[in-house]
Amino acid sequence: MTEGSLSQEEINALFNQLNENPSLSIEDFLSPMEQDALGEIGNISLGSSTTALSTLLNQRVEITTPTLSVIERDRMEDLIEEVHVAVFVDYTEGLRGNNVLMIKENDAKIIANLMMGGDGTSLDTELTELHLSAVQEAMNQMMGSAATSMSTMFHQKVDISPPSIDVLGFPPKKLEAFADDIIIKVSFRLKVGNLIDSNMIQFIPLSFGKELIQQIFKTHDPVPPSTPIIEEKPVRQAQTTVVKPEAAPPYEGSPVSQIPVPPPVNANVQKVEYGAFPEQPAASNFKGNLDLLYDIPLEITVELGRTEMEIRKILELGPGAVIQLDKLAGEPVDILANHKLIAKGEVVVIEENFGVRITDIISPIDRLTKMTM
């Protein structure tokens, strides 16, 4: 090799840079605000997926903040330089669209091994149908938990169809699942214990990404300015009725009518005025009185679910018995303070301990009411 010539690895790197089409910028398709909104959706949904995957694999799972970029649909295959497992997910309710999650072959083998009770180190040489079924179930739980988080974000039910799975070799098959010419590429880092530390890729059609952004903007739209006017109407009517009441007619049947009364012309008649009733004190007015109570400890409980059982069934319980609760997998858990509901959240794993990430807070007035009841 002569001096100044390029090695084969350097030639491949330059070729890959040319294939990435650097002229295609995400700012041409999504504004900074839209990028932030889509990134926030990814953070919340992937955080929920982390909890589900950690429970299934019995391993600590971490997913980093996703990074966004855009590529042309015809160049998706250029990113695949080794065998990947593609998980196709269709949203069927609340949202309409699809996406693809790409997992490296070795990572899929580790996930399958853990799902089947292994330690994640003794891997088979090939991915069998049994392995793919295990990975498919893991992705089903993972994306189902993400859909539940979206339901909370968008205030409507979001559901998915069971994911389908396929193995993409190199060169890969054509990814014909998308109709859009521009695809949003979401890259994030997946860590599972000490077994997996690699990058995963999610492909989202631009039109579906726009729909997600519109949903989050619509959900968090500010209250229209006309709303306070509508709320003030009953208040003004109540004040008018109380402050300026009509004079009541005299009671003719009363014995007082027999007492001589001066002529009305010379009488000094004054309109009766009633003081306005004080408004019901808002919960915030009690805040000063609660200052003395802030140091009182409360018992915080996370309730996974409930069920009812007969005494006969309880006496039959033993080690290894399974009790089915009234909540579905991935559904938010209740957070109670002294047995009063204050928030909802999802279970997470923090190092070696369990924790709970708050996803929905009960309004301050309702919380204060529940505390003081």
Number of helices: 9
In total, the number of domains comes to 2
The CATH class of the largest domain turns out to be Alpha Beta
Overall pLDDT = 75
Please, what is the CATH homologous superfamily of the largest domain? CheC-like
Characterize the main sheet.
Answer: 8 strands, antiparallel
Radius of gyration: 32 Å
Structural class: alpha+beta
Query: What is the second-level CATH architecture of the largest domain?
Result: 3-Layer(aba) Sandwich
Q: Give the N-to-C terminal Cα separation.
A: 84 Å
CATH-defined fold name of the largest domain: Chemotaxis protein chec
Question: Can you tell me about this structure?
Answer:
By secondary structure, the chain is an alpha+beta fold. It folds into 2 domains: 210 residues, CheC-like (Chemotaxis protein chec, 3-Layer(aba) Sandwich); 84 residues, SpoA-like (Surface presentation of antigens (SPOA), Roll). The chain is 34% helix and 23% strand. It is built from 9 helices and 12 strands. The strands form 2 sheets. Strands 1, 2, 3, 4, 5, 6, 7 and 8 form an 8-stranded antiparallel beta sheet that branches. The protein has a 4-stranded antiparallel beta sheet with strand order 9-10-11-12. A hairpin with a 3-residue loop joins strand 7 and strand 8. The longest helix has 26 residues. About 10% of the residues have low confidence.
